[in-house]
Amino acid sequence: MSMPVPRRHFLQAAAAAVWVPGTARGYSASDLRPMTQDDVLQANVSKWELDTPALLVDLDAMEANLATMQSVLSRNGIASRPHAKTHKCPQIARLQIGSGSVGICTAKVSEAEVMLEHGIESVLMTTSNVTPFKIERAMRLRRWHPGFVQATDTPENARDLSEAAVAAGVTADVVVDVDPGGRRTGITPGRPALELAQLVDRLPGLRLAGMLCYDGGSQHVTGFRERRAQTRERLAPAVATFESMRGAGLNTEIFSGGGTGTYNIDHENAGLTDVQVGSYIFMDAQYLAIGGVSDAAVYSDFQPSLTILTTVLNSQYEGRATTDAGAKACTINRPWPIVKGETGMSYTASSDEFGSLVYDDPSRVYRTGDKLELIVSHCDPVVNLYDVMYAVRGDRVEAIWRIAARGMSA
Predict the structure, then answer these.
(1) What is the maximal distance between C-alpha atoms in the chain?
(2) Cα gap 313→324, rounded to integer Å
């Protein structure tokens, strides 16, 4: 029986670090934009020539993640409906749809607007709109985009949606959001959820499209067995609710839930139609730490594809170096970023402008002007810090993708 690969050795094997002299040119996105056509870079530019900090996505790794997800879900007889809050990038959403996803999810109506305006036809907004302004925005979206679906989790909100839909002259597709036990959003499963679904089904201007139940609390449970047990237990009331909706003759075309941490467990929840995976496309330090089926130490199902390129600013002090990627480039989420391809060193980004590299038994030592890549701590908030991401294959920059939904938090 083979032993699990230690976390540091897995990361070392993922990609070797490359030393680049400090004289390398620092191209910014504005420098490169005139050299692009339809976002594709026409010039031969190495990622090591980019100005820093810069957000990179490794196309080979990302495409492998897309293929792995689609292969496993297809084998398990379930679909994917990826969450665009992870990447906020229409180009990536199109790749996900192209690989077989049935649509995408968004957290905010502003994100939904961006995705729909960029040609993504099927968008499920997983957060309820409760203010008159947001409800009106959602109904405007529904008027122009028949693939837009929104959620509700209270009778009062359902009535507000109905009134707005009638006023707008539309029929809005609505799913009932069911709470998996976290008491964050969603209505209590069982009779309260069933009665809300029946209300939506009766109200003018609304069409019941099914239900969703996203169990965020189970996604980062360490250990596959523990994660599977918690997921099955917490989703059981939602599964029973779905069955009661079906038994009552209600429309149950959508039963959406699950995520990256439970993608290979979610099909065991009877009736679930699709999985709201998000971080699988990029991966991050938080997910790497939860362990998987074949590796208890590292969640190695998907490859880290999202990195921050940073430059060493100061290396004169023994046992440490300072970079230009601090909290404003990395966030202060834990665990801290991981230096890609290296061992025996730790990275912190607790200073606003500067990152700190501390050596223990380092695989190498960085000098002023050197560049290195960081596997991000938590991909969702990191992406929201940048205007663009550079799509790279090997060392070459292939495209510049605008993070079009950056800052869309309303």
Answers:
(1) 71
(2) 6
- Measured in Å, how far apart are the chain's first and last C-alpha atoms? 51
| pLDDT profile of the chain (410 residues), mean per 10 | 38 39 72 95 96 98 98 98 98 98 98 98 98 97 97 98 98 98 94 98 98 96 97 97 98 97 97 98 98 95 98 97 98 97 97 98 97 98 98 98 96
Structural domain including 318 reads 7-58+299-402
Q: Tell me how far apart the alpha carbons of residues 298 and 301 are, in angstroms, rounded to a whole number.
A: 9
- In 147-230 the beta strands, taken as DSSP E runs, fall at 148-152, 172-177, 206-213
The 10 Å Cβ neighbour count of residue 381 is 14
The CATH number given to whatever domain includes residue 165 is 3.20.20.10
d(CA 137, CA 180): 28
Euclidean distance between CA atoms 241 and 141, whole angstroms: 29
> In this predicted structure, what is the pLDDT of residue 11?
39
243 shares a domain with 138: yes
**Of 257, 283, 309, the domain-final residue:** 283
Q: Is the dihedral of CA 337, 338, 339, 343 positive or negative?
A: positive
Which of 248, 283, 318 lies at the terminal end of a domain, its last residue?
A: 283
Q: Which residue type does 359 have?
A: Y
Domains in the chain: how many in total?
2
Residues β-bridged to residue 207: 173
